[in-house]
Amino acid sequence: MGKVLKYSFYDLIRSRWSYIYLLFYLALGFVLLFLNSDLSKAVITLMNIIIVLVPLIATIFGTMYFYNSKEFTELLLAQPIKRSDIFLGQYFGVAGSLSLSLVLGLGIPFMAYGLLRSGAVFNFSLLLGIGVFLTLIFTALAFNIAISNENKIKGFGYAVLLWLFMAVIYDGIFLLSLILFEEYPLDTFSIIATALNPIDLSRTLILLKLDISALMGYTGAIFKKFFGTHWGFWISIFVLILWAGLPILRLRYKSIRKDF
Amino acid sequence: MIHITDLHKTFGKNQVLKGIDLDIDPGKIYAILGPNGSGKTTLIKCILGMVIPSKGTIEVLGKPIKNGWRYRKEIDYLPQIANFPGNLKVNELIEMIKDLRNAPGQEDELIRIFDLEPHLEKKMANLSGGTKQKVNLILAFMFNSQLLILDEPNTGLDPRALIKLKKLLNKHRGKGKTLLITSHVMQFVEEVADEVIYILEGKIYFKGTTSELKKETGQIDMEHAVAELMKSEIHGEST
Fold first, then answer.
1. What is the ipTM of this complex?
2. Do A79 and B99 touch (CB under 8 A)?
3. pTM given for the model
4. Which residue segments constitute the domains of chain B, with CATH numbers given?
């Protein structure tokens, strides 16, 4: 797997898009930090952007890479390489280069700002960690969609729909059901519904760590009681690992059985 | 060398291979022939493990290949359509394949034979069809594997390169290697092949030497002999 990963990764870090992605985060990081006097506000703004943009970029980039590297894949399939290694190598190549752009693009401005000496270093690392998780999750989902759809346009459409559902529609349904079933106790429901969507889960985790849950009233208190504890935190991390792990397992399963 | 028993492959509703039994002996050049869509490429891809058979077994060098991948060290493959990552340079591609296979390659001699020195620094996407096919040939011939599978090796080659290809094929046969070739150019097949395997609608219709084929069909050259095979099948269907 190492060699496939190496070549995919090299291929990607030579591509123009990786640099555009990196430059975007660099610009974003510098602008937010140096034009904003309040560090935690800057982190919240960053969070709002990361949580929507990272999944979108990972989904689109993942599907695009899978379809565009068809020739490379066919070349590899005839070589003495294990099938699952080919696809997992490509997957980690894409997810790795996207994560690198994210971590470098935001890490450099924060270093320049002198973050290591401030108290926000934990919150910031959490933000980056979650960004990496979201990249892993959505790249894996994108690869799954692409490997199951021969038709590029269809695959691309499904991938964008998936992102739209997770980032926008899910929240709409969630809120709507909260209003509709107002009279029932919804604590457990809302905690489970939050955990089931990686974007919502990431947002909740960061907001609670930033200690602004008081702004969210009663619901915030319940969330704090669950996600704010050590136990809740580790459960959330576990759910994120599941979100990344299950699609990777399915990708492995599919790749062993597909005809080329 | 290769032992295939009762091989079936279905893509959706389309039954491509319908029970292939085949033995490939070492040290010979085999030509796999058949009309378009008869299942030649599918058969080759099954041997390579790129297509997973619906039924039946394939053994390469005495071992079943199911779920295996190490046996591909013993196979060099020339794909039909030379699709390579377009942003790689020719020499980068050669180095990459050597690295991936973990084997030293004898590419220098082949680069000389096919006059590829001026193209080594060019990107794959900027090469002409014939030059791409030459790169394809180098990648397939530069390792010393026991088994060579060539899907339409003569596509896009000029006469000069074609003569060199024929020499190369004979040289590799001389080394005791086994070669599987598909081609639609019968003159080429007649010149290089020892045995012919004729596939029709997913089954082996004829297997034997080229002279046996000519004798059986009563024709003097391969082109007419194979045309005769196709014709007799069409008549067989209509009656």
1. 0.81
2. no
3. 0.87
4. 2-238 (3.40.50.300)
